[in-house]
Specification:
Blueprint lengths: L2 E5 L8 H14 L4 E6 L4 H5 L14 H5 L9 E2 L5 E4 L5 H17 L9 H7 L7 E6 L5 H9 L2 E6 L5 H19 L4 E7 L7 H12 L16 H8 L4 H4 L4 H16 L1 H13 L1
Parallel strand pairs: 1-5, 1-6, 2-4, 2-5, 6-7
Antiparallel strand pairs: 3-4
């Protein structure tokens, strides 16, 4: 049964999609069967995995699961990575967020919780046996779609940039996860924090990085591996590829390789699966 991980952060531009795409690549290289769910209407991780925006028809991706009750298995497609399947993010996800917001308002007026919180969880449950790892890329912020993704997950991974208010962003992510647990019955916890796009030439960046690592609450969650800011990452995104597929010898690719190894070691279900695959290899 697959481990389900949602990747979420308060702000955009922190590398959520790059993190999802490159973790998927690492998992596939380790022999795991991976499903990536793009829950962001911008479709960034869909592009990284080889789907051109012109090939994403509104209503043909994840929105169909919410609006039409389509099973996820009907919306999965192949990617540019063997062993990785994808449910694309499409423009109608904006309509989904609006529609679910209305349902939530009506439910609260009646003193109940809307059924929207379990839509993705139930859809994922139907395909969990077909995969070893499910990664959900979420939109920035903590709207209803993001809360729905958290409710579908076993764990939440949050990328962070070492910049002003980094701690505040982590606090907001942790609060969103806790609200989902308290109000919606989510089982996920904030299980890891990944520092990305690091440029250690700046003394300010080094000081902020150290502040995040020493934080009394979140410091223990911070991965040892950091992903540097490099030109190769930008180029890979433009080429609709993971950085490892674009240039496997680059600093960023080696960092993501190390990050995957750390993610696998920190995630018990995944580490057991990787060990099993190595025994069969």
């Amino acid at each position: 049964m697959a481990q389900v991980v949602a990747v979420s952060a308060h702000k955009g531009g922190v590398g959520k999609s790059s993190l999802v795409g490159n973790l998927a690549a690492g998992a596939a290289a380790a022999g795991l069967r991976v499903l990536v769910i793009d829950a962001d209407q911008q479709g960034n991780v869909s592009e990284i995995l080889g789907t051109h925006p012109r090939d994403i028809v509104p209503g043909d991706g994840l929105s169909a699961v919410y609006l039409d009750g389509e099973p996820l298995s009907n919306r999965t497609r192949e990617t540019n990575l063997p062993g990785v399947h994808l449910v694309v993010g499409d423009e109608l996800l904006a309509e989904v967020d609006y529609s679910l917001g209305i349902r939530e308002g009506l439910a609260r007026a009646e003193g109940a919780h809307a059924a929207w919180s379990r839509i993705l969880d139930e859809a994922v449950a139907e395909v969990r046996d077909a995969y070893n790892l499910v990664l959900i890329d979420t939109a920035p912020g903590f709207g209803i779609l993001v809360s729905s993704a958290i409710c579908a997950a076993d764990a939440v991974l949050s990328p962070v940039l070492v910049e002003p208010h980094a701690i505040r962003g982590l606090e907001r992510t942790a609060s969103a996860v806790e609200r989902a647990r308290r109000d919606l019955g989510a089982r996920a916890e904030l299980a890891g924090v990944v520092i990305q796009m690091v440029d250690l030439r700046s003394s300010y960046v080094r000081a902020t990085r150290d502040e995040v690592r020493r934080h009394p609450v979140y410091g223990r969650l911070v991965y040892a591996t950091e992903v540097p800011r490099t030109v190769r990452m930008v180029e890979a995104s433009h080429m609709r590829r993971t950085v490892g597929a674009y240039d496997s010898t680059s600093t960023a690719a080696r960092s993501y390789d190390a990050l995957w190894a750390e993610f696998a070691a920190r995630t018990p279900n995944v580490s057991a699966l990787v060990a099993r695959e190595h025994q069969h290899a």
